[in-house]
TrEMBL record:
Active site: Y395 (proton donor/acceptor)
Keyword match Flavoprotein: yes
GO BP term, pick one: lipid biosynthetic process
Binding site for FAD: E210, G211, A212, L213, C214, Y215, I216
Residues holding substrate: R337
Similarity comment: Belongs to the FAD-binding oxidoreductase/transferase type 4 family.
Record protein name field: FAD-linked oxidoreductase
Amino acid sequence: MVLSCEEVREAMAKLVGAENLVTEEEELKHSSIDRYRKYEDISGVFTQPIPAAIVKARSTDDIANVLKFCNENGVNCIPRTGNSALESMLESVKPNHIVLDGSGLDRVIEIDEYNMQVTCEAGVVLEDIENQLRAKGLTTGHSPQSKPLAQMGGLVATRSTGQFSTLYGGIEDMIVGLEAVFPNGEVTRIKNVPRRAAGPDIRHVVVGNEGALCYITEVTVKIFKFMPENHRFYGYTLDDMKVGFEILREVMVAGYKPSIARLYDVADAAGHFSNFQTDKCVLIFMAEGPVGITAATGAGIEEIVAKYKQCEQVESQLISDWFDNLNWFPEQVAEEREEIVATKNMGFTTEIAANWGQINAIYEAACKRVKVEVPDITWVGGHSSHSYMNGTNLYFVYYYNLKCEPTEEIHKYHNPINKIIVEESLKRGGTMVHHHGVGKARAPWIKDEYGSSFYILKTLKQAFDPNNVMNAGNIIPLEFLD
């Protein structure tokens, strides 16, 4: 039997206190979606199930008690911290669900400078902990554009990566230990050690689970020395993406570790570098760390780029200034909403990754299909911003004119573009998502993504969440669990 909205609210009030329950209609409506449906949100039109309540957790015990109730009563629970999700992760496929908000778990528990790690609760904003660390000459090394908004639990749950990932890695490389609560109320802690070989690395059952297996309540991540006085920036214009990808590949294969290695195509570069770019691609690097390392990294990059005569270097200060204004604060989110209303023009990104041998083919094929198959496209392009020894990622960026009702935008534009990019990546052996997570937007292709290893993923879901109350439909559609 499905509990009614009122029954869910009454139960939640008993568990966490009425003062920690949000039931105001407008806030519930806005909490029924994430930024994947931002045009519906801006238009005040909500097509997805509205939560019965937003439950504000204040402790791990709150999380455990709420999850246990949901598990025993078939109430779908959507875990949330920073509310910066992008892939329909915060939508519910079942009615009378709850949003379990952990932003109140916001204590920095310990900054351990000797062992070079920081422990904090899931609701700590990344920007806040980063500011505390930088005041001590330290950094997490994690810097997604959402840093002013995102919170630590959500970053770990979505297997986030940041703008300095080419040096520091993704969140999975930074995580030391964590605490998580499973739907039966079981509180589990993975201890903080530098490495261990005691069976499978169970951190990775939790990291990237997108709230579909458990709720992350506490995390410990590595920290690093922060030496901004040694930062070096390099920028170049060039004629085509294929050469840019080859330069990125050479830098990585040579063993250099710039903190930033980015390549923008002509369309995407026009919006970022109009002060020096005209019909050119843009390649940028940043070296950081001890002075000897940054000098060697910079010299290596310059030596590699010098082999490509089409590359013209630009003043390093231009790159430094650009990067200082890259992050998204609440003000930028508000400005974007106003711009969409004024221009009726919408922009999104879809990010994938592939090996060096296929990335340019994916880029060309996806851009070509989007231009041909999707109406009202203003432009489509992209950039690479996270590179590895054996490949790189690619952000597809696209804008389209909104010639439809708010309820039609997803089906006319956003989903078809997503579908094209996912298909072209999977067709060539790439991954359909690099770091935004699967959510429900890319879940239809999860079997294609995993192939025969889908057995492992499905078995994890069935074992840890047999009643499917943890963000049902996220990562794995309901019909794939039958």
